[in-house]
Design goal:
- By secondary structure, the protein is α/β, with parallel strands linked by helices.
- The chain has 2 domains: 3-53, no CATH class; 61-188, Response regulator (Rossmann fold, 3-Layer(aba) Sandwich), CATH 3.40.50.2300.
- It is 53% helix and 17% strand.
- The chain contains 7 helices and 7 strands.
- It has helices at 3-17, 21-52, 82-94, 105-114, 131-141, 156-164, 177-188, and strands at residues 53-56, 59-62, 74-78, 98-102, 119-123, 146-151, 169-172.
- The strands form 2 sheets. A 5-stranded parallel sheet has the order 4-3-5-6-7, with helices on both faces. A two-stranded antiparallel ribbon has the order 1-2.
Length: 194
């Protein structure tokens, strides 16, 4: 709509509405402000939700790492067992790490495209793909990424295949937490915040 037709429209309203014209303009301005405020609020809420969490099924996935540079204090935990994810998250946060988690391979790959952890703790058995398949895809995306495998089964063949595929170490569940912390610290060159 050009300026002349807009002015003609306002003149028509002014003539018709008389004393109510100023009220009309105030209401029109208020409506514009509310529309902009609503649009900005929706955009801000979307950004906050993306930063805080991603919801897949009933599993809430935490994004705590704001690290985008691959610094030594960001790690990703990939395990389908919520108890293991919670335990390792708590342990490594106390050690001063930024931690983010994934419950399956798809989530891990999605996170890795947006985040840059120094190290990944990866379960051998996941619901949507094997740990070996995910390891190959992680290494394809980030060849220098350090990956430690976790397994509940002491399967020698799978462990050897993982090590040949680029994993730097493996731990059999239940693992010694202090030993795991030591290996993670040595690989990330991270000094504990304790």
């Amino acid at each position: 709509m050009n300026v002349a037709s807009e002015q003609a429209k306002h003149h028509q309203y002014k003539t018709w509405a008389g004393p109510f014209y100023s009220v009309f303009l105030k209401l029109k301005q208020k409506r514009r402000e509310m529309t902009l405020k609503s649009r900005n609020s929706r955009l801000e809420n979307t950004k906050v939700r993306e930063q805080i969490s991603v919801k897949e099924g009933n599993d809430m996935v935490e994004y705590d790492a704001t690290d985008e540079t691959g610094q030594a204090n960001a790690i990703m935990i990939v395990d389908d067992q919520p108890g293991i994810r919670m335990l390792l998250t708590e342990v490594f946060k106390k050690e001063g790490y930024h931690v983010f988690v994934a419950a399956n391979g798809y989530q891990a790959l999605t996170h890795l495209k947006r985040k840059h952890p120094a190290l990944v703790l990866l379960d051998m058995k996941l619901p949507d793909m094997s740990g070996l398949e995910l390891l190959a895809q992680l290494k394809q995306l980030k060849p220098n990424l350090k990956v430690i495998m976790m397994t509940a089964y002491g399967e020698g063949d799978l462990v050897q295949q993982a090590l040949r595929s680029g994993a730097i170490a493996y731990f059999t569940k239940p693992f010694d937490l202090q030993e795991l912390i030591s290996v993670v610290e040595s690989q990330t060159h991270h000094i504990s915040s304790k």
